[in-house]
Write a structure and sequence with these properties.
The protein contains 7 helices and no strands. About 30% of the residues are buried. It has about 170 residues and is an all-alpha fold. The chain has one domain.
Length: about 170
């Protein structure tokens, strides 16, 4: 089962990487919904039920967010978070099992709000939580995927937040 789980994780990673190559948010979300399904299967085969359920909830969240595009009513965010908490209670297996729940709740809030700087910062926090979880449950391809996501967010923070801020400051001084 371990190798089957890793295979699902590798395919999920490939699908996730393909998703970032799309310029349309709708297409990106379609790929990420499928990627979340594959990651859920990876965690299922590793008997990491919290990770599995949170990836299923990530699929649901992305379907809802895709439907409303950029104007997601807060009631749907609250509903998604409540479902995540309930599923987390059912799959509780020690403190480590709470890490995926906390990660996906934080990132759901980050995607819901409009400030991309905050979204990127919260993504790094969420990735950090998933790195610890992936190490614990031996989700090796999930771990690689999480590192790629984290480094991508760090690069985006530098490119769009730090470097742009320095450029804007220079323009203002002149």
């Amino acid at each position: 089962m371990f190798y089957v789980a890793q295979l699902f994780g590798i395919i999920a990673l490939i699908v996730l990487m393909i998703s970032f190559q799309n310029n349309k948010k709708e297409t990106l979300l379609k790929y990420q919904i499928f990627s979340s399904l594959l990651f859920a299967l990876q965690y299922l085969f590793l008997n990491a039920i919290s990770g599995c359920l949170m990836n299923i909830m990530t699929m649901v969240r992305n379907i809802i967010y895709k439907k409303f595009n950029d104007r997601i009513p807060i009631k749907y965010l609250i509903l998604v978070i409540i479902c995540m908490i309930i599923l987390s209670a059912f799959s509780y297996n020690g403190l480590i099992s709470l890490l995926p729940t906390l990660a996906v709740i934080l990132y759901s809030i980050a995607l819901w709000q409009k400030n991309l700087t905050i979204t990127r910062i919260i993504e790094i926090i969420s990735c950090s939580l998933f790195i610890i979880y992936n190490i614990k449950v031996l989700a090796i391809s999930g771990l690689v995927s999480t590192f790629i996501e984290m480094f991508s967010a760090i690069i985006a923070i530098y490119k769009f937040d730090i470097k742009k801020s320095k450029t804007d400051t220079r323009k203002f001084k002149n």
